[in-house]
């Protein structure tokens, strides 16, 4: 977990 | 070196996307799932590189796994279903004459009501489901790195190292991820989704550029921006 963008914010896992 | 997009993307997210594409009955549904993944990749790329010039990183690390039949950079893996079956039997310590070992070795034989006869990846999935990690921990980049070493060790005739690399993949992946890994290694994803469709969703000029270059990396890099077409880059090409 760094300062850069987080993949999880961009790709929402389908429920 | 700057971390690539692929080093941030869990292989599990690619696999769940492929699973959703395959399970979708209609074309618009399949398209939607592919676009979601592709668009996320492009948005993340923008955030990571902030529109810096000359970025070579692209959708290629995912694309080569989605269209493994077009792989050109890696030499052959030298692996077919029977070798994978033997490897799984050894690794999982399955009794050689037991039900599951026989299922893996005779994956072509008609079995139960699931209709998975002939599809090694699906047969393996049901054998692996009870026996491997619930969650994998590999990124798309790590999977490509290991597949690179499988291919190069195969061409160097180092079977021991091929096996070591495969073990690395197998021990760090969920059953679902291994099902897709197997398909990527066998180079038949069975998505119900043509290469043409994948290209056309990636970029309107992708098929044309691929037909001229047969270079998947170049297609992904040069057509990374949906708004930039072949006519814009052709000056650089010719």
Oligomer: heterodimer
Note poorly predicted spans of chain A: none
- Put simply, the count of helices of chain B is 13
- Helix share bin of chain B: 55-70%
How does the overall form of chain B come out from the CA principal axes? globular
| First and last CA, distance of chain B | 31 Å
How would a crystallographer describe the biggest sheet of chain A?
A: none
Number of helices of chain A: 1
User: Radius of gyration of chain A from the CA trace?
Assistant: 9 Å
Number of strands of chain B: 0
> What value does the Rg of chain B take, in angstroms?
19 Å
Structure class of chain A: mainly alpha
Q: Show unreliable segments of chain B.
A: none
Textual characterization of the structure:
The complex is a heterodimer of chains A (15) and B (238). Chain A has one helix at 7-10. Chain A has 15 residues and is an all-alpha fold. The radius of gyration of chain A is 9 Å and the shape is rod-shaped. The termini of chain A are far apart. The model of chain A has no long low-confidence stretch (mean pLDDT 78). Chain B has 238 residues and is an all-alpha fold. Chain B is 60% helix and 0% strand. Chain B has helices at residues 11-23, 27-49, 60-66, 81-91, 99-105, 120-128, 140-155, 159-171, 175-186, 195-202, 206-213, 216-222, 230-237. In chain B, helix 2 packs across helix 10 and helix 6 (120-128) runs antiparallel to helix 9 (175-186). The two termini of chain B are 31 Å apart. In chain B, 37% of the residues are buried. The A-B interface holds A 4-7, 10-14 and B 3, 8-10, 13, 16, 20, 36-37, 40-41, 43-44, 47-48.
Task: Fill in the keyword field for this structure.
heterodimer, A: 15 residues, mainly alpha, 27% helix, B: 0% strand
Short description:
The complex is a heterodimer of chains A (15) and B (238). Chain A is mainly α and 15 residues long.
């Amino acid at each position: 977990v760094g300062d850069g963008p987080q993949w999880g914010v961009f790709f929402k896992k389908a429920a | 070196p700057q971390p690539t997009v692929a080093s941030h993307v869990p292989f599990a997210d690619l696999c769940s996307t492929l699973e959703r594409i395959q399970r979708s009955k209609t074309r618009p549904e399949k398209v939607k799932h592919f676009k979601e993944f592709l668009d996320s990749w492009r948005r993340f790329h923008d955030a990571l590189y902030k529109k810096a010039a000359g970025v070579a990183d692209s959708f290629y690390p995912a694309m080569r796994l989605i269209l493994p039949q077009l792989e050109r950079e890696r030499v052959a893996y030298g692996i077919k279903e029977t070798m994978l079956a033997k490897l799984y039997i050894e690794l999982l310590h399955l009794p050689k004459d037991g039900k599951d070992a026989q299922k893996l070795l005779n994956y072509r034989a008609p079995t139960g009501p699931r209709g998975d006869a002939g599809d090694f990846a699906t047969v393996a999935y049901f054998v692996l489901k009870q026996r491997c990690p619930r969650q994998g921990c590999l990124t798309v980049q790590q999977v490509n790195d290991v597949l690179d070493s499988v291919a190069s060790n195969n061409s160097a005739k180092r079977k021991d190292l091929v096996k070591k690399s495969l073990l690395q993949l197998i021990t760090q992946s969920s059953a679902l991820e291994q099902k897709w890994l197997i398909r990527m290694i066998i180079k038949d994803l069975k998505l119900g989704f043509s290469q043409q469709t994948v290209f056309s969703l990636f970029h309107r000029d992708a098929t044309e550029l691929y037909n001229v270059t047969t270079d998947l990396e170049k297609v992904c890099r040069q057509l990374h921006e949906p708004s930039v077409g072949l006519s814009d880059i052709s000056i650089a090409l010719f």
